[in-house]
Amino acid sequence: MHPDLAKLLEAGRINQAVATRLDQLAPGRFCLHKAWGAGKVIEWDLPGKKVTIDFEQSSGQVMDLQFAIQRTETLDDGDFRAKKVEQLEELRALSKSDPVELVVHLLASHGGTMTVDALEKELSGAVIAADDFRKWWESAKRSLRESKRVVVPSRRTDPLSLRSGDMSPAEALVSDFEQARDLKTMAKALEAITGDLALFKADTAALQRLLAGINETAAKNVRISLGPALELLSARDEMVRAFDDMDLPAESLRLSDLLASEENRLADALNGLASARQRAIYEEFPAAFGDRWVDVLTFIFDKVGTRGVAEIAKLLEERGEMKRLSTHLVSALARRSLGTDALIWVCRERDSTASGVFSGEVGACILNLLETDHLSDGPRKTTRLQSLLSDDKELLGDIVGSMDVNEARNFGRRLMECPVFNDLDRKSLMARVIKARPETGELVAGRGGKKEEELLVSWASLEKKKAELDDIINVRIPQNRKDITIAREYGDLRENFEYKSSKDQQKYLNNRKAELQRDISRARGTDFKGVDPSMVNVGTIVNLATAEGKQMTYTVLGAWDSDPEKAELSYLSELGAALLNKKIGDTVEVRDENAPVTHSYIIQSIVAVNP
């Protein structure tokens, strides 16, 4: 205790508690102020109740003694912040000679953990020149990871932390894995271990402990987190393969067994995993599914995201199984069942891997997906597909280039009627179609007047559209406004899911309202009476037959009257447009709904729906 305090204590002027606290502010001691930083007490005047402190941000600061007691914290002489006050040059030298020791010292002075931002605030400008800090920190991070004395997170927002105890480097890596809070973090820790496998050759106990931990963690999380569990087992197997004389313990959960048992959940589980990890998992499919492995891969092909589609295609091509994938894709295109990611892959690879798959069917499939997504509630799922159609300047030309004249005209007509595109985009896209197939130019030429092409519709479908418009204007839009107002009260709009969802719904409702108003203004209702049955017209029933005697019957109705289950066609549909104006005895090509083929039919009879 400082002599001045000892005298006051002996004289009974102060008690032991006051003396102890005052001793922490004795000349030569160090303290911390929130605003002025660390400081050293220079002198005090006990009778005058004053103390003078040299702070980092305020040298020679004279403070009331009581105020200083309340506003400062004591620092040990060995604290990093105390050394910044009196041994700054030594710290600067240490930052160059041993950055690991510098960071360890700093962390120890802050309870063993601190964020990178806090570390930068402590060092930049004082110990390390501000302009040099970023470069210094990148080098220091590498040294820290090599030393294994500090846990260095991959994200800047996560804290650095000192490792506890005298661990071996291998034990330190295992500790990182065991302390991870979720399977994703565990997988990253395992990736780091894979990069330092040499450490485990001399520490087999740590390796066995790690393998046991992986097996236990994956088994516990299979039901709720299948994707991360697969990722964890795949990283484990990659690590094991690096040791020539090492096998998994007999009781270990095998990746191939897990794949086989969870076949129905694989598409959702794999979607979102990194490309390299997906590839490693797909390579286990032969072991998991035997002779069925190609069938399983093609089944999930367009359900595993963009990265998964690319990796599956590469694997099948390398294994000589591309023909089976192509057959699957051609069939899916004919059924209009191919998903967004697979369609994008086919378009991007149309001049190489997917050249045998790419055809005019791709265009029809794209428009189907865009229209279906546009009419469904909720956020758009085909934005990337729409962007590809706009950004790839050659795509539309390649699509219509493989079509005959009628197919190209029908595709152009569908494109012009597609509600997804605004007028400017529609004109731009049609210009590409016309450039590739000039005979489609009449479609645009026929729309040169101010009035848009009239739509022939049944009275029932027109009333249905009007009812939907009325519901949107009088019910759904007012409710959406209320939802937005309520959602605003939930907090930060940047992280407010309810607000974003309501705004997405607002955009959809406004677009749908404009679309319905435009369509209704173009519509002409009819009951299909008095239709001329000498050729296929809107409001006729058409009988078709093949040379072998197979027959089909279709009813061609208004623009909004499609019902596949009743064989009712809109005259704007692909088949409806192909049938229009045909006569008895004419031949028409009909696409098979279940196979990638077309059938030739001869028109046998035409009768009016309402004679």
TrEMBL record:
Q: Where is the signal peptide?
A: none
Transcription among keywords = yes
Q: Kindly give the PANTHER family that the UniProt entry links to this protein.
A: TRANSCRIPTION ELONGATION FACTOR GREA (PTHR30437:SF4)
All residue ranges annotated as the Transcription elongation factor GreA/GreB N-terminal domain in the record: 457-524
Keywords, in A-Z order: Elongation factor, Protein biosynthesis, Transcription, Transcription regulation
- Domain Transcription elongation factor GreA/GreB C-terminal, by residue range, is 535-595
What InterPro entries does the record tag this protein with? GreA/GreB_C_sf, Tscrpt_elong_fac_GreA/B_C, Tscrpt_elong_fac_GreA/B_fam, Tscrpt_elong_fac_GreA/B_N, Tscrpt_elong_fac_GreA/B_N_sf
What molecular functions are annotated in GO for this chain?
translation elongation factor activity
In its UniProt entry, what is this protein called?
GreA/GreB family elongation factor
**Which SUPFAM superfamilies has this protein been placed in?**
FKBP-like (SSF54534), GreA transcript cleavage protein, N-terminal domain (SSF46557)
